[in-house]
Write a structure and sequence with these properties.
By secondary structure, the protein is an alpha+beta fold. Helix content is 34%, strand content 24%. The strands form 4 sheets. Strands 2, 4, 5, 7, 10, 11 and 13 form a 7-stranded antiparallel β-sheet that branches. A 5-stranded parallel β-sheet has the order 14-1-15-16-19, sandwiched between helices. A hairpin with a 7-residue loop joins strand 10 and strand 11. Helix 2 packs antiparallel against helix 13.
């Protein structure tokens, strides 16, 4: 198995004894060969452990999903069903800050997971360069229309708008070592008065139920493509068209890993944009992965302020998706004012406390990295940037692979558990 990160430069916990075991038995698909799943995942983990051993500063014992036995049981069950052919699609939606916007973490995790669970497509894609910001390396977008960046952000973290028609070219590549081709394109906008087409195929437009002013324009292609030329036609609309994202999918069973990141984002900034959570609910994710906390620990950190912002954002999320499992990817180690940022551990502990009280899971990236102050070791191994806050592409890809390994460990443990 090729390790993808070598390719390139954020009350009491629930007591399991309180859960009616018969309910768990009924929810779990009894006819699946979980022993075979355990064996296959074991060899994958053995492979990755051997490769990761070269990074002696990584704390492999901490590389696991915490509190997942109940918090993520429904998600693991769906993965088992996917592998067994009883389900066509399982989706993850990750949102976070600049650590995620670059695409290296998500791209690596997506590719590794899809190698095992099936490739349902790249998922959420956005023309970030049209919004004047950095964009992942596994796709390119150009357009003859005049686009400008909107202030409020939608599903992809950013929103661009136009008042004209024109061409829209989208091209994917295999930067992360897995096919990014697609035969379905879902275009998310605010208007039905603009039409989309590709050659002689016109998009079918539908309004997303329960989400005001959100339209999805679906294009079905005859075969898999890595490039598509879209035509945007303006109708009688007087208002500008807002583009929230494009969903690139494949008409075959597999895992869909959507991700979005916003430079400088925090729990507070997401809480200030409820439209994001309304649009997120329309994607119906099977797991929500939250990767925030770094920017919350910058500046003059105040625990009571952060606690309020954390709860405010999660209240919005839970109002839209009350039952979807939540997994936190805790903030990585970093510096602040040229010293180890001790507030990272405080932010992470607040997130853990909320997760324990609300039956959510977490992955402690700071501990996996090697603990407090480990950002320096990452920098000495060319994995972190000079600011000791961000990471080199290879560092983000390593994080993505470590996350994949932790998730696979949780899945393996779930398949091993007696039913």
């Amino acid at each position: 198995m090729v390790l993808l990160f070598t390719l390139a430069v954020a009350g009491d916990s629930i007591d399991e004894s309180d859960i009616d075991q018969r309910m768990l038995d009924e929810e779990y698909p009894q006819d699946l060969d979980t022993l075979e799943e355990f064996i296959q995942s074991y060899y994958l983990l053995l492979d990755s452990d051997q490769e990761l051993s070269k990074y002696s500063f990584i704390n492999s014992q901490h590389n696991r999903i915490e509190n997942d036995s109940l918090a993520m049981q429904s998600f693991y069950n769906k993965l088992v069903e996917l592998r067994s052919g009883l389900r066509d699609r399982v989706s993850i939606f990750q949102f976070g800050d600049s650590h995620i916007q670059s695409g290296y973490f998500a791209g690596t995790a997506r590719s590794a997971l899809q190698e095992y669970f099936g490739n349902a497509g790249r998922g959420l894609t956005f023309p970030l360069r049209l919004a004047g910001t950095n964009q992942p390396d596994d796709y390119r977008v150009s357009s003859s229309a005049s686009w400008s960046r909107a202030s409020a952000f939608g599903l992809a973290g950013y929103t661009v708008r136009t008042s004209s028609g024109g061409s829209f070219s989208l091209r994917t590549n295999e930067f992360f070592g897995i096919a990014n081709s697609f035969d379905r394109v879902g275009i998310l906008t605010n208007s039905v008065d603009y039409s989309w087409s590709a050659g002689d195929r016109n998009a079918r437009t539908q309004t997303i139920a329960g989400c005001e002013n959100l339209m999805r324009h679906d294009l079905e292609l005859s075969r898999l493509h890595s490039q598509v030329e879209l035509s945007l036609q303006k109708g009688q609309a007087t208002d500008a068209l807002e583009l929230y994202g494009l969903m690139l999918e494949r008409s075959e069973p597999g895992l869909l890993y959507n991700s979005t990141g916003i430079n400088g984002a925090s729990f507070r900034s997401y809480a200030a944009n409820p439209q994001f959570f309304r649009q997120l609910s329309a994607t119906q994710p099977d797991l929500i992965l939250i990767s925030l906390g770094t920017n919350d620990a910058q500046g003059n950190y105040r625990a009571e302020n952060f606690r309020r912002e954390l709860r405010s954002m999660l209240t919005l999320l839970r109002a839209e998706l009350p039952e979807t499992p939540i997994l936190f990817s805790l903030a990585p180690d970093s510096n602040k004012r040229r010293r180890t940022n001790q507030d990272i551990s405080k932010v992470n502990q607040e997130i853990i406390d909320w997760a324990r009280q609300n039956n959510a899971a977490w992955w402690n990236l700071q501990e996996v990295m090697g603990g407090v102050g480990s950002i320096r070791q990452w920098k000495s191994n060319a994995l972190a940037a000079n600011d000791l806050l961000h990471f080199a592409p290879k560092g983000y890809m390593l994080q993505g692979y470590l996350f994949y390994q932790a998730l696979l460990k949780g899945y393996q443990s779930h398949t091993q558990s007696p039913r």
